[in-house]
Write a structure and sequence with these properties.
Elements (H helix, E strand, L loop, with lengths): L24 H24 L1 H10 L13 H10 L4 H15 L6 H21 L7 H22 L6 H32 L7 H9 L1
Helix pairs in contact: 1-3, 1-4, 3-4, 3-5, 3-6, 3-7, 4-5, 5-6, 6-7, 7-8
Length: 212
């Protein structure tokens, strides 16, 4: 009689799950395409934000932070769609590189540096939830996290010496913008793309399609 037994498979949980660390070729390709597409969005917003900025700045200095959201959406989208560790940083940075190569007015290095910082802000939120929770509140927190780190970075580089009032108004404004325009809008956009079937090779796509 065969008395040998199989060793049961080890079920890993939390951040020990191997699937969140192993990137497939399709993950890299789709994340790169997302980054490039968002880079062109950044380029359009680099020009489009100038009009609203001219209206907001005289009303209350610091309120221009309300316009930051579109520059933060890449990291949120990357995390929500790819669902791998590092996706938010990767997609936001690729978008920043595209914007920098096209001649963003803030300079190549500083544009890429901003992308890294903003991507890190979203990445830390997804990490906080162990890359397991992809609901609207987490997406909004990711957008807010991206905005907070990006806003602090902007205050250091572009608004050095700003008084406490400007600093508070700017940080509150950019966090609100990040939560709504990057977080909530990014969540809705990710679900809209998934509903088309384009993301069926991803957990994000299968999850949405299963509910349709």
């Amino acid at each position: 009689m065969n008395t040998s037994t199989r060793t049961p498979a080890i079920t890993r949980t939390g951040l020990r799950r191997p699937e969140i660390w192993r990137w497939r070729i399709v993950d890299i390709v789709v994340a790169s395409v997302l980054g490039v597409a968002c880079g062109f969005l950044f380029l359009a917003w680099n020009v489009g934000y100038l009009g609203p900025k001219a209206l907001l700045e005289p009303l209350l200095p610091g309120m221009q932070g309300l316009l930051d959201g579109p520059w933060l959406i890449a990291g949120v989208l990357g995390g929500l769609i790819i669902r791998k560790a590092g996706a938010a940083i990767y997609v936001e940075t690729i978008a920043a590189v595209v914007s920098a190569l096209a001649g963003a007015q803030w300079g190549g290095f500083l544009t890429i540096e901003a992308g890294l910082v903003q991507g890190l802000g979203a990445e830390l939120i997804f990490l906080l939830f162990a890359y397991r929770v992809w609901k609207l509140p987490v997406a909004m927190l990711a957008g807010a996290g991206s905005a907070l780190l990006g806003g602090i970075n902007n205050l250091i580089l572009w608004f050095a010496g700003a008084d406490i009032t400007f600093t508070a108004i700017y940080l509150i404004s950019t966090v609100v913008s990040g939560a709504v325009l990057a977080g909530a809008l990014g969540w809705a956009l990710a679900r809209g793309i998934a509903a088309t079937g384009a993301l069926d090779r991803f957990g994000s796509g299968r999850e949405v399609r299963a509910r349709v």
